[in-house]
Predict the 3D structure of the following.
Amino acid sequence: MLKYLLIVPIILISFTYSLANSSEEEKAKELIINAIKALGDKAYVSVKSEKSRGIIVPYKNSNPSALEVQSFSNYILLPEKERVDFKGRGRRYIQSNSGSRGWVYDSDSQILRDQTEEQCQMFLKSLRYQIDHILRGGWMAEGVTLSYLPKQEIWTRQFGDGVQITFSDGEQIKLFFDLQTRLPLSVRFPKRSSNTATPTLAENRFYKFVEINGIKSPQVVDLFEDGQQVLRINYEEREFNVEIAEKLFIKPESAKSLK
């Protein structure tokens, strides 16, 4: 009789723990759904393409480095095609990815080459850290679990609550949202490098949301690594659901055609 009495508290504890987990997951889901609504709801999740341009400002020792400012043009065809053209100080650099394939061009060396398998896989994996990829369905991917992060100070005098996403391979990222607008504040994720065994804690912070055809998007994105700012992206123009030619992502026959 005693063993059955002992089983009852264990069942109650397990049931209570299960309810708590379920409640936390529901709060996390609600937070993501509210963020999607704040960004434009159906207009936001139905985006098929994006074209943008702007300026990238590198930071050295927490100060902007004006000498290395670059302009960029970005072309995205969802879900897995992206091309970025960089220009600065007389140099042009192109990185193009189409799923598991990609190529790069460097005007300084006049080299046009395929990306390595490792580089292509890094691109595919990096998609899980992109706020739009996450909110447009990544959070519902197979094997993904969600947990709620209560209100906390994200950076100095900026508070928000958030969601921790755990992927099937055990990797985790954290999303934080504004308490009033429910717009995204930041994404924190592990940035791995072949130079170090321990991943860097990277963070993208989002500012100055502007509505474009019913879709809200940040015009400024700051990139941090281990708490230090390394980059600022200033968007000068963003367009959604525009026609983008497939040939942009196809590797040219020679570097001459890219001049």
User: Anything to note?
Assistant: The longest strand covers residues 196-212. The radius of gyration is 21 Å.
